[in-house]
């Protein structure tokens, strides 16, 4: 049973006002998104237990505790599978991923790949188009670029600017790079973003 299904089971007959129903809906969506990341990275959710519903205050605290556990698990899963295999990576560690995921909103992972002239800029545009294909606002971003060693720093700066154009005013961006040691001429980007549709 997924966490969202467990929440439905626990709250189906509970007396909850509209504000608290919105909170429950938010956690259901957020938990489902975290579970998807963890499952996609071939990790398992174990021993995360939701309490029985005995009043919203205590149940909400349980949801918050589970949320923290999911942030830890999803951050670890993503870091191990996406980042730690690249010994030459610069500027990113697991705390950056965890800090991004701890923001309110829904976690989304998108990727872009391009080659030739303006490869990293085009890969970034490709990833951002995927991210913004639905009507969301972007609250926080961790971006990881795989680029050729010979790439100009100005190209990377342009790519970061492309991302920043779509962030909320008070949002933050953390980025890291790793070298394409094979010099294939291909640039890749992975973006972890926390998005919002006006809930949370």
TrEMBL record:
Please give the name of this protein: Cell division protein FtsZ
- Is Chloroplast one of the keywords? no
Q: Please, one GO biological process term?
A: cell division
Alphabetically sorted, this entry's keywords are:
Cell cycle, Cell division, GTP-binding, Nucleotide-binding
Work out whether the entry's keyword set contains GTP-binding. yes
Organism the protein comes from:
Campylobacter concisus UNSWCS
| Stored InterPro entries | Tub_FtsZ_C (IPR008280), Tubulin/FtsZ-like_C (IPR037103)
**Superkingdom of origin organism:** Bacteria
- Gene Ontology MF term list: GTP binding
Where exactly are the transmembrane stretches of this chain? none
């Amino acid at each position: 049973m997924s966490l969202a299904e467990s929440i439905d089971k626990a709250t189906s007959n509970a007396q909850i006002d509209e504000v608290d129903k919105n909170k429950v809906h938010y956690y259901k969506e957020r938990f489902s998104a975290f579970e998807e990341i963890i499952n996609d990275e071939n990790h398992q959710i174990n021993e995360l237990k939701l309490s029985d519903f005995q009043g919203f205050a205590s149940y909400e605290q349980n949801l918050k505790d589970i949320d923290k556990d999911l942030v830890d698990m999803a951050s670890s899963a993503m870091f191990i599978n996406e980042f730690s295999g690249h010994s030459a990576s610069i500027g990113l560690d697991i705390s950056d991923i965890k800090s991004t995921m701890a923001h309110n909103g829904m976690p989304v992972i998108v990727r872009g790949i391009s080659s030739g002239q303006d490869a990293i800029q085009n890969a970034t545009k490709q990833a951002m188009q995927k991210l913004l294909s639905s009507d969301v606002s972007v609250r926080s971003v961790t971006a990881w670029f795989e680029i050729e060693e010979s790439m100009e720093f100005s190209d990377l700066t342009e790519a970061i600017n492309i991302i920043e154009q779509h962030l909320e005013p008070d949002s933050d961006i953390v980025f890291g790079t790793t070298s394409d040691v094979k010099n294939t001429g291909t640039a890749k980007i992975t973006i972890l973003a926390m998005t919002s549709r006006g809930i949370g």
